[in-house]
Write a structure and sequence with these properties.
By secondary structure, the protein is α/β, with parallel strands linked by helices. It folds into two domains: 67 residues, no CATH class; 146 residues, Ribonuclease Z/Hydroxyacylglutathione hydrolase-like (Metallo-beta-lactamase, Chain A), CATH 3.60.15. The protein is built from eight helices and twelve strands. Strands 4-5-6-7-8-9-10 form a seven-stranded mixed β-sheet. The two termini are 21 Å apart.
Length: 214
């Protein structure tokens, strides 16, 4: 992540969102904090007791903020609303990931962390859950996520899966990719397309990858 941030020439970052404290999501935060020591780290309230969560609190206790459903904050002209986790823990770290909807004009982006079936079902029931322009694919495209009921509710135009190529878990699973295709959703993954950049003017959303997908 740090090479990407350096190449983007970012002078400062106000907030860093870690969906949950698993090492594949939060393990690189130390290097990012070295670049941006004043950035506030936002993480799920139910991950505060994990090893990575404790490390975050020890290294930067004044700038770690634990969020839950109902919290919100501004990101420039955009607005972020936290939909999960709820006040009651759903159990495992994955299902207690931060789920955040970013709204900028007509563009809606849903960030889902590693939520799986139980959290997806709770999410689907929320009356305020919007249809979305872009969906960050839950749990790297695992068989235990991206259920048909949730996709029918969201109707994402574009799905982006964050994962490594030839990973040992076999992500994304073929049936999950096919499920998105059945909803007419365009599919991008960091394994195939590299880093993906989202650009929006509030009306149109455009994704560009470092390998030429547009």
């Amino acid at each position: 992540m740090t090479p990407v941030l350096r190449s983007a020439g970012l002078v400062g970052i106000e907030r860093i969102i870690a969906s949950h404290a698993d090492w594949d999501h939060a393990g690189g935060l130390g290097a990012v904090r070295e670049l941006y020591p004043d950035a506030e780290i936002l993480v799920s309230r139910w991950n505060a007791a994990t090893r990575a969560g404790r490390l975050l609190a020890q290294t930067s206790p004044r700038t770690v903020r634990h969020l839950a459903a109902g919290d919100g904050f501004a990101l420039g002209e955009a607005r972020a609303e936290v939909l999960q986790p709820a006040a009651d823990s759903l159990g495992g770290r994955n299902d207690n990931s931060l789920v955040i909807v970013l709204a900028f004009g007509a563009t809606r982006v849903l960030l889902t962390g590693d939520i799986e079936r139980r959290a997806e079902e709770e999410l689907r029931k929320l009356p305020e859950l919007p249809g979305v322009s872009v969906l960050k694919v839950p749990h790297h495209g695992s068989r235990t996520s991206s259920g048909a009921a949730l996709l029918a509710r969201l109707r994402p135009t574009i799905a982006v899966a964050q994962l490594a190529g030839r990973n040992r878990f076999g992500f994304p699973h073929e049936e999950v990719v096919a499920r998105y295709a059945s909803f007419g959703t365009a599919w991008l993954s960091t394994a195939a397309d590299g880093e993906v950049e989202l650009v929006s003017d509030g009306q149109m959303a455009r994704l560009r990858s470092c390998r030429g997908t547009d």
